[in-house]
Specification:
It is built from one helix and 24 strands. It has 223 residues and is mainly β. The protein has a domain of 152 residues.
Length: 223
């Protein structure tokens, strides 16, 4: 367990503030850790039952976001399973979180001055994320799995989303079909893109704020 740790770089070090790249990290817990000034924050190559809670990660270059706040897995040979990232604050980063893990939970992240909030290559549940207006690439970017020939699952379960805008990105249609979005409220319009309306989303089926169901087709169940 790592708790109440502060690590500061005055020169925007290009390395990782905390890095675990040897072996499998089991039941590792990082709490109340402040990592400031580094280009990259925490990297755990192979994570099993890892929790990262109440951490502050970022640097002091708001006009030039770079680096990654937390990376789980290396995207080639290792990912992880049973990872929790909870109540963490991220600032001035290219990507706040990149995860290749299965069964990854990201709860109540605060993301400011970052190009991308959460990039997932595994199966991730995101609860009540908050973004500021500078998140210009994607709030959540759902990409294909790149580990072991891409055999593991992908997709996102996104709960309590929408108050900070709507910036979803998908690597392919498969990632979109595997994703479910339940907004925190449903008082916003479906948007101008008829092919990707906003609302309660079950893959490519969307229910907008007017109660309209957007789908490619309907099939009646047998009596």
């Amino acid at each position: 367990m790592v708790s109440s740790l502060t690590v500061t770089s005055s020169g925007r070090s290009t390395g990782w503030a905390i890095r675990a790249n040897g072996g499998t990290q089991r039941s590792l817990r990082l709490d109340r850790t402040n990592l400031t000034g580094f280009t990259n924050g925490i990297e755990i190559r192979d994570a099993l039952g890892v929790s990262i809670r109440e951490c502050r990660i970022g640097h002091t270059h708001p006009t030039n976001p770079k680096g990654i706040g937390i990376r789980i897995g290396n995207g080639r040979t290792h990912g992880g399973n049973g990872v929790t990232i909870e109540d963490c604050y991220f600032s001035s980063l290219d990507k706040a979180i990149v995860t290749h893990a299965q069964a990854c939970l990201v709860s109540r992240p605060i993301i400011e001055l970052c190009h991308t909030g959460i990039e997932t290559h595994g199966i991730t549940s995101v609860l009540s994320p908050w973004y500021d207006s500078t998140t210009d690439v994607a709030h959540v970017n759902v990409q294909p799995n790149t580990i072991g020939g891409g055999r593991s699952g992908t997709g996102v379960l996104l709960l309590g989303y929408g108050s900070s805008g709507w910036k979803m990105m998908y690597g392919t249609d498969a990632e979109r079909q595997r994703s479910v979005i339940l907004p925190e409220r449903l008082d916003f319009p479906p948007g101008e893109d008829a092919s990707r309306p906003r609302g309660v989303s079950f893959g490519q089926v969307v229910i907008d704020s007017h109660g309209v169901v957007h789908a490619r087709d309907f099939k009646k169940l047998p009596e």
